[in-house]
Amino acid sequence: MDRIQGSMFGLTLGDALGAHVEFRPHGYLVANPVKNLVGGETWGLQQGQFTDDTSMALCLAISLIARQGFVPYDQLVRYKWWYKHGYMSSTGQCFDIGTATKDSILEFEKRQKMFAQQHNIPLNEIDFLSDRALLQVFNVQCSQQGVAGNGALMRLAPVPIFFFRDPVKAVKYSGISGQITHGDDRAYDACCYYGALIVAALNGAKKDELLSEKFYDDHLDWFGHRKLHSDVMTIAQGSYKKEGGYDEGIRGKGYIINALEAAMWVFWSDKNSFEKGALNAVNLGDDTDTTAAIYGQLAGAYYGYQKLPKNWLDCIYAKNFIRCISSWIVYEGEKWFRNQTTLGSKMSIPFYEDEEDEAKETEEQFLWWPTQTKNGNRYVMVNTRLDYQHRSKHPTELCLYDFVSHFYKKMIDKSDRHLLKNANEYEGERLHTEGTKMNERHTIESIHPQSSSHIIIKHTTPVVPVLLSPQILRREREETRERYCRALLTLFVPWRSVHDLYAVNQTWFDAFEIRKSLISSNSLKIIENIQLLHECKHDRDEHLRQVLGEAQNDTKIDPILTPNCSEEDQNTQEDYPEQLFQMLSFVNETTTNAYYASIGNQEQRYLNDALQAIDNTDRFALLNNYRNILNQNSYHIVDDFNTFVVAHSHHAVMNTEWKRDFETRRDKAKNFLISGEDNLEVRDDEMQIEVVTAEIPTSPYKAQTTMVPSVIVFRTIWGAENQFSPDISILFSELHRLGFDGIEASLNEIHRLSKNNDEIFMETLSKNKLELIAICYTNWADFVPGTWQNLTVDEHLNNLKRELEQLMKYNPIHINIHGGQDNWTLEQQEAFFQGALELQGKYPNVTSSHETHRGRSLFNPTLTLHLITRFSNLRLTADFSHWLVVCERLLNHPSDIERMRQIVSRVDHIHARVGSVQHAQVNDPLINAPKETELMQNWWQMIWTEHMKQGKTITTLTPEYGPIPYAMSSDIDIWKLTNQEMERQRNNYQQWIIQNQD
Fold it and tell me: What local confidence, expressed as pLDDT, does residue 805 receive?
């Protein structure tokens, strides 16, 4: 348990430790190293709050617990809840998500809608799919080859923790868990390799064994004797063992190979100290929280919970809940393994891996969720047995098999409510549906936990029940006769109580003989078919033994190779689980509460502790109507009716006192909600405040965390021509390595880069975790006046329409428009922007802005101010270097400053280039143009300030420097200059953030 808790909390600590400096470059962290667990900065989190790494790990852990095994569909559902509703988020909302993960979740949601339509499943039930046949045909591989981000690794720990007793399964499922959102082979194999390391650590492996170049070879059977991708094998063979660390190429980047190598380097060099290793991981820079979270999974499993920094652990958000989840996942994992071991050791024929999912646990299975009762909220457990036992009195003559075949359970909706007006509140009965198109409906007896929320409906066409429990035995075997009779009575004789099936001191065989006449002719036919299947299997096995025996005599086959088929099927298991007997013995005619009291103390404690921790956080109020449909878990999302309340006069009187108390009580209340430790002090003068608290909304929508904006930096393809190569992956990989977050490119540049292969372009972009800002031209790109300045407004708009349509397939995060021309009249300019903004409005999911540029419509500040005043939705890309050339002066006059102050409020995107009054670009901003550099920097900081006021969490910036004729001379290294400016602007932004945190 110490190692398991260590792995879960190691992940969480690494995530929380790196969250406040996420996306900071290595150079910044060299100058400002992280030394302790703090909050603030990038996301504005409180100390100990976590980001997407831990949120997704908790989603994965809870899926394993709730489904008692590995169900990728359910994992994707919970990831979707996190993305859509903030499920398992430390802030109540999803605020940090990788592109690959987001794309996979959206693809999954799209497939769900199509699947629901194909199989006639209501959309509000599709998240809770539990039908095994449907789950098998749903394609959960929602990513594709080439998508290899570190998001697959960051959440991994719950899988090896759950399955560590079966390393082969743990390794296989580790790979699949990453592959469903990151489809590249590298992602699959990286997760397999790292999952194997965590399994080994949990099983007590020494550190030199984990770091051995022979680890893969020594555990080849864990990997199914399968070769790993060469990039992963390079790491497994020790490529990370570099004394120089960052100086020798170790990078905390978003590419999964970089991330894996970085985490292994940190573990190798941490000097047996988790604290030292976690700090080293964060101070590598870039994707700081994920690098540290990946390291924390393995290091925590190796060092154990007790050796993690206590002062850090004390700060972790929802630590009691995470501790509970750690205990619960151990419990469920052990139960899963025990069940698999029992199945594997007692089957009389080989148990193949593909058949594993067909095996079910031998105890009665229940589903649980919160429901409202007269005594308030409580958690109830239901299953098909309860539905049958407490069915309506009208289908009372139905046996269990026929009941499942003809009826199903459904939540009451509006169309059902008018039928329930005259229904008996306590007795299940048939509802009057005459004159309607509704199927036959029945209420449930009030003793059923869902009697007030569900009804039973008759199928239009009967279904064929599938028995998921161990099969019905052969009737001729004397030693299993009692179990055989008990199974037939349970399935094919109507009953509501165990006493309906047999009397006191009566054997099951005698009970069956007496009640055989109650079995319908159709059921008797089914029983005969079951027996026929047994006989077919027996004949098959007899024939197999005969063939093998003859072969043994002829070829002297070693007898040890001959399967032992003397025990057919599973009928001779002396300790065959008394499943049906236990199920019936639990029945209490007066109340079902007796069963709930008999639930195992250990499991119930985990369940109650976890649910209490969830309720206390008040994070998941959106998902507030958990229910069961056809034995499928479901949530019903309701509107937040408490978001707004009516203000009264006494609120004004109490407002001042409430504000005074809020800041000091907030942190105490937060600690109470998480830890349950009631240390809140109640003052004598608090009564007036308590009047208000009942009316203060507790909606999760109110739990908004103030976030400090971060800057993401792009590189134009223009100016990088000398870096082109036949394989664009070299260019993109280098940009990613240097720290750029994306590229800015036009349609022509995209086609040139990819040789008109859009798929290659998108795959390479995604692989290197780069975003795209698309450049859209309504005319020719060259700034030198040419024939394009003779185009009409309509021709420009037609070009804009065509380019916007083509650019959308590349999923840009923003579009930078070079629009219009400088020789138009004011009326033409206004006509152009009116048409352009209408075209832009057709793509509401992608922001777009018009660049301030020579030769274009926005070629000077005066006209630009007029147009943004005329069009309130006109947004800008700020390339103010052009205006210095057009105006031939520094725009530092008081009138210029006031004009610029209004203009910067409309800027979405920055082209960070320094120019002079004669050149739109200088060779070295700090040396050649110090005044211009200071002026430009002031304008950019004004834009950052506006973004902060507008609540923007991300600022985009492109340091744009190009060749002759923009460059003042041909000897300038454009590549080096752009990279230097990228680093300089990152540092400037961070310094500005620090100065403006208050």
Answer: 92
